[in-house]
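Weekly modeling sync, notes
Attendees: S.R. (lead), two postdocs, one rotation student

Agenda item 3: backlog of single-chain predictions. S.R. asked that every request posted to the team notebook include the full sequence so nobody has to chase files. The rotation student volunteered to paste the first one in as an example of the format we agreed on. Action items at the bottom.

Example entry:
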Amino acid sequence: MVVADQNIGMGSLSKMPDDIEKGGVPLVATSLLQQRAQEVRSQRINWNSYLQSQMIDKEDFDFISKFDGADAETRRNLIAQNSLQLPKTFLNLLNQISKDATIQYLLTLLDDVLQEDKSRVEIFKEYAAKRKESVWTQLLTLLNRPVGFIMNMTARVIAKMACWSRDLMQGADLQFYLTKLKDELNEEKNEYIQSVARCLQMMLRIDEYRIAFVALDGVNSMIKVLGVKANFQIQYQLSFCLWVLTFNPTIAEKLNAYGVIPVLSDILADAQKEKVSRIILAVFRNLIEFERPREDCLTIEEESLDINLFRVRECLEKYFSYLCTAWTVKDIEILICQFRNFVN
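Predicted structure, as returned to the notebook:
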């Protein structure tokens, strides 16, 4: 099946990307969430006022006062001195403080802390385990805050914890989180839709999360967004999500029932950005590899799949010169062989 590298490069669309949010790698502010996060980082919180009003205790005050504004090395040293103080302080402050601006600041700082070192998610898991609590409870509650930035930055933090931890998110917590992401996709004129899609790009790399999202009818939500002339960035991100879904053979065999091929064919025909064309072609290639040969098609539904495969062939014929530069000769030979088997 199609396999792709970390950067989904021109000639190597052939294996699942290990991670799209590498810890320790600074982020470029391309989405509205990241642009506003830059503004939030420039703020300064008067932690002393919270101590004086007895909203936080002395231990949490001492830690956050030293931690906030410190450079990466100082943060590492503070965490090394008492690692469990990190989750204790952050979770206490998120629970005890109600002011939106401070919650936004804490979530942005937490996101930066995890981005610096992805292994820190295990410290939060360890702290919750020692208290016999779920690490998800408090964070999932923040998803219900009626402030777009808080909801979406929380969703981003949860995605990192769910993807970077040794223990996967499960059960009702996973259902609630994925349902929230799906609902945000369905929301009309959602200004944070790029951030929602980013969370899905992270989550759907993991098979257990793919299966859960498809069971919630998440594919239909993505197809609806793609079918209403989404901008090129959303086209790319949601096509990426469909691409990673195709790495599960069972899901790949069912994707055509959602109308994936016609929608992506229309986008490909008008695509102005190379990365959009590239990722859609990768989706097609994986879908073709999982479909049965023509002589096995017995039902009307399966015959309609044959028609859609011809649409894919037409798209690929249009993009033949592009393929010659984008993929290796071996890639093209494999693709031609697949089409001979399926649509000749």
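Discussion: group reviewed the output briefly. Residues 18-169 form one domain.
Action items: rotation student to repeat for the remaining queue; S.R. to check formatting next week.
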